[in-house]
Design a protein that fits this description.
Blueprint: H1 3-6, E1 13-14, E2 18-26, E3 30-37, E4 42-49, H2 57-71, E5 81-86, E6 92-96, E7 101-103, H3 104-111, H4 116-135, E8 138-139, E9 148-151, E10 160-163, E11 170-171, H5 175-180, H6 196-199, H7 208-223, H8 233-242, H9 256-265, H10 280-294
Antiparallel strand pairs: 1-2, 2-3, 3-4, 4-6, 5-6, 7-9, 8-11, 9-10
Length: 295
C-alpha cells in the first residue's frame, strides 16, 4: 500500500501554497503534517482540522481561537504561527514553525525525571511564554509535558523550550465568546494538570490556573511522578480538588524545602500561589540551592 493510500492528504496542495509531505501526529481535532511552503521553499508544520469535526461549530471555533490567541504572541518560547486559512475543500489549517527535538513527555519516558537545574531552566522558559500570554489576556489551559517541546536547535548545548498547542486557550477579553465555546461534556483541559477552579463549577478561572499547571509540571519533572493520579479522568480531577498536596521529599531525594515550594506552587486556593508565571523559576532556583546543600 502506498503512503498516499494510507493518508489520502499526502501529496495534496492546500490553498495553492502548501504541499503535504509527511504525517507528524494527530489529536482529537486535527492532524499535523510536514508541509512544503511552495512560495518560500521551506518546510513548515501544518495543522489540519479533521474532516469529521469540520461541521462542529465548537471545534471550529476553538481552532480559530487558537490562531487568534497565538498570532498576538511573540515570545521566543512560544510556537510561532506563519499563516492560517481554508483549503479549496473547506478544510481549516494553521501553518507554524517546524521544530526539531522532542516533547517533554518523550524526555520523561526516556529518563524518568530531570536534573533540578534543567527543571529550573524549563520553568523559566515556560514561565516567559506564559507571562507574555497572560499579559495579552490569553490563558493556555492545557499545559502538560506533551505541549512543551525541547528543541535541538538553535542552542544544542542546553535546553531550549517552546510552548505548544494553544487549542484550549481562553481569551479573557472575549469572555462571552469563550463561554460559547464551552459546552457540557466538551473537554477543557487534561485532568492530571487542571487547577481546582477549572474543575469546580462557578469558580473564577484566571492566569493562576496556568501557574498551578506549571507547578504540577515541575513536581513531575523533579520526582518522576504526577502529583495526582486516578483510575479515571473524573477520579483524577477530584483528587486535584480534594487530596492534600503531596510531599515530593517522600518520592525522591529532595529536602523539605521542596515540599514548602509545592505548597505554594500547587496551592488549592489561587490566591496562595505565585501571582506571575515568571515568579516560578526564582522559587525553584532557591529550592535548587537547598537541594545542592541537602546532597
Amino acid at each position: 500500500m502506498s503512503r498516499h493510500a494510507e493518508d489520502p492528504n499526502l501529496g495534496k496542495v492546500l490553498a495553492g501554497r502548501y504541499r503535504l509531505v509527511r504525517h507528524l501526529g494527530a489529536g482529537q481535532m486535527a492532524r499535523v503534517y510536514v508541509a512544503e511552503q511552495l512560495e518560500m521553499g521551506r518546510n513548515v508544520a501544518l495543522k489540519l482540522l479533521l474532516d469529521e469535526v469540520q461541521l462542529d461549530d465548537v471545534a471550529v471555533g476553538r481552532f480559530r481561537q487558537e490562531v487568534y490567541a497565538v498570532a498576538r504572541l511573540r515570545s521566543p518560547h512560544t510556537i510561532q504561527f506563519y499563516d492560517a486559512g481554508v483549503s479549496h475543500s473547506g478544510a481549516q489549517f494553521i501553518a507554524m514553525e517546524l521544530l526539531a527535538g522532542e516533547t517533554l513527555r518523550q524526555r520523561l519516558i526516556r529518563d524518568g525525571r530531570l536534573p533540578p537545574h534543567e527543571v529550573v531552566g524549563i520553568a523559566a522558559q515556560v514561565g516567559a511564554s506564559l507571562q507574555e500570554a497572560h499579559e495579552a489576556g490569553v490563558l493556555h489551559r492545557d499545559l502538560k509535558p506533551e505541549n512543551i517541546f525541547l528543541c535541538s536547535h538553535p542552542t544544542p548545548w542546553h535546553l531550549y523550550v517552546k510552548v505548544l498547542d494553544f487549542g484550549l486557550a481562553k481569551i479573557l477579553e472575549a469572555e462571552p465568546d469563550a463561554r460559547a465555546l464551552t459546552r457540557d461534556g466538551y473537554r477543557v483541559g487534561t485532568p492530571a494538570y487542571m487547577a481546582p477552579e477549572m474543575i469546580v463549577r462557578g469558580r473564577t478561572v484566571d492566569h493562576r490556573a496556568d501557574i498551578y499547571a506549571l507547578g504540577l509540571l515541575c513536581f513531575e519533572l523533579l520526582t518522576g511522578q504526577r502529583a495526582y493520579e486516578g483510575r479515571s479522568p473524573r477520579e483524577m480531577a477530584m483528587a486535584q480538588v480534594m487530596e492534600p498536596i503531596p510531599r515530593g521529599s517522600q518520592l525522591a531525594d529532595l529536602p523539605p524545602a521542596v515540599d514548602r515550594l509545592f505548597d505554594t506552587l500547587i496551592a488549592k486556593d489561587a490566591a496562595d500561589r505565585p501571582q506571575q508565571a515568571t515568579d516560578v523559576a526564582p522559587l525553584l532556583a532557591d529550592a535548587l540551592s537547598r537541594i545542592e546543600a541537602h546532597q
